[in-house]
Design goal:
Elements: E1 2-8, E2 14-19, E3 27-33, E4 36-46, E5 58-62, H1 65-77, H2 82-86, H3 112-123, E6 126-131, H4 137-150, E7 154-158, H5 166-176, E8 180-183, H6 189-201, E9 206-209, E10 221-227, H7 244-255, E11 258-263, H8 268-273, E12 276-279, E13 288-293, H9 298-309, E14 314-317, E15 324-329, E16 346-348, E17 353-355, E18 362-364, E19 377-382, H10 384-394, E20 400-403, H11 411-422, E21 428-431, E22 446-449, H12 453-456, H13 463-475, E23 484-489, H14 493-496, H15 500-514, E24 521-529, H16 532-546, E25 552-563, E26 566-575, H17 578-582, E27 591-595
Parallel strand pairs: 6-11, 6-12, 7-9, 7-10, 8-9, 10-11, 13-23, 14-21, 14-22, 20-21, 22-23
Antiparallel strand pairs: 1-2, 1-4, 3-4, 3-5, 15-19, 16-17, 17-18, 24-26, 24-27, 25-26
Helix pairs in contact: 1-7, 3-4
The structure holds a DNA duplex.
Length: 601
Amino acid sequence: MRYYEIALLNTPNTFTYRSKNRYKKGDVVVVPLKNREVQGVVLKEVEKPEFECKDIISKIYEFDEKYMKIIEFISFYYFSSIGEAAGLFYLPPKLPKKEAFQSVKTQIVLTPKQQEAYDFLEKNEVSILFGDTGSGKTEIYIKLIEKTINENKEALFLLPEIAITSQMEKRLKKHFGENVAIWHSKVTKKTKEKILNELAEGKIKVVAGARSALFLPYNDLGLIIVDEEHDDSYKSESTPKYNAKDLAVLFGKTLNAKVVLGSATPLVSDLYKFPHFRLKGTYFNTTKKRYFTEHFDGFILSKIEEKLKQKKQTIIFVPTRAHFKYMICKNCGEAVKCKYCDVAMSIHKDKLALKCHYCNFTSPIPNVCPSCGSEEFLNERKGTSEIVEELKELFPDAVIEKFDRDIVTSKSRIDKLLKRFANKEIDILVGTQMLAKGHDYPDVALSIVLDIDFLLNSADYKARERAFALARQVEGRAGRKEDGEVIIQTLNPEFFDRSYEEFYKEEIEFRKDLGYPPFVRMCKVEFSDKKLEIAKENMMRFVNCIGEKEELMGYGEAPIFKLQNRYRFQVLFKGKNLHKIIYPCIDLKVAKADMDPVSFI
DNA sequence: AGCACGCCGACT
DNA sequence: GTCGGCGTGCTC
């Protein structure tokens, strides 16, 4: 009888099972666990243990050496178990019966500049397509996909979840027909099974999908495109907290696939690390005028009025959803906070409620301050709903709609709203970050960015690049096909009124001086418990083990101290070899590590 | 996933 | 006291 250490998929622990058969590392087997059957990856053969072992039921798949290398990297780099890393991958169905190879031919003819970009991306293993909104990146992607298919390889087109909209699907299907599959979290189980089958059969050659599409069982992946590569939603916020954009580079290297990162505003760190091709201006050679203003004032309103008169459309970006971010007592200055989270609750007038944007706890709007009993409140910072209401009063004849997480709850609702906008049934669209993302937004005459200083001033080393990129992305929505105008509400016009290259030059110096990525890595280690003392003790044990190291930036209460009824403490690191420092001290039962964090709350 | 265990509030 | 709700931890 042989004994094997097996990492159960999606669990932190390994278990020992026995069998008469010989298995090797990477074999995926079915094993009994309590009264059900689960899957696990064989790690190695071990000595007969003290305890009783159950028998391995069957072998269903094997990860080859390349994939095991990737799984081990994910496990090591993101401080997760092999089972959690392997659990990310989708397994193929059993009967792979390959269809005959068919070549494709698209009708696309690249412009000389696009061809130059194509040639550049062709000759580099990993590179960035740094192209302005509307500069014609998609045609280049399609040509790269065409070439990949004709080499009888598969192409993966990654997009942020929110950007997976019908338009990109339509464009890809127009060129590659039934060879295209769309993959994201909202695709039904049945459709997912169908895609897995067709992928195994060799019928599907192009997958356009969200970050999880990276883990599909490709036969021979030849190309990975990461569009909107700057987008934070490539980072998973559940264990393992991987970044699909960074992993795409690893997959490319390990599986011998070309990697293209595309964006109008590439991350400073990526622009530093990888070669890029600059695709400037818009395809239609339009011009864009940029204005700055300190307040949401008459200038903005007169511009909106002007566009309404010309029957042209406006989009307004607001960093806050709901009505106002906070309800603050005029007397004692306390914000009304969520009872489960240390977070001020947001006002939702339509539901006559306060809502916590972190745990969704809802409570009625109080008449008196819960802290001091005073009856007078101040409302802090305007949100999407408040702006919509104010504009409706000012422009009663205009059609004004809201576009944020409260409205956009499903893909069909996004599609419907954007279709109406495209048909010019909506004059003004007011929205949050979502407005800046994706491809499906039609051309508008005026883009307005409100209150961006709120983003710029948030306490996080990425705040500057996020604010700059967001302003540029919202700007990009105007003037793609016709000349457009942009208004940015800020007290820092000089920060925004420059090219991305100028911003990059300053930012990279800033990061170098202060020692931030890409010159170092960062890691956040979190300790949380419903009992404050336990969370704190766990953190202190860890901090004491680390000792005095220059990589240890600080530790203490998390910026949101209480979340979903749990107290949170965190330890922050930056440095060149964080794994070497953290691994000897971390107890993964009580600590959650977040490598290359995008959120510091 | 499902089941046992234990902590804490409501009450025969 | 005890009953039971539910959050937490364990399953080789």
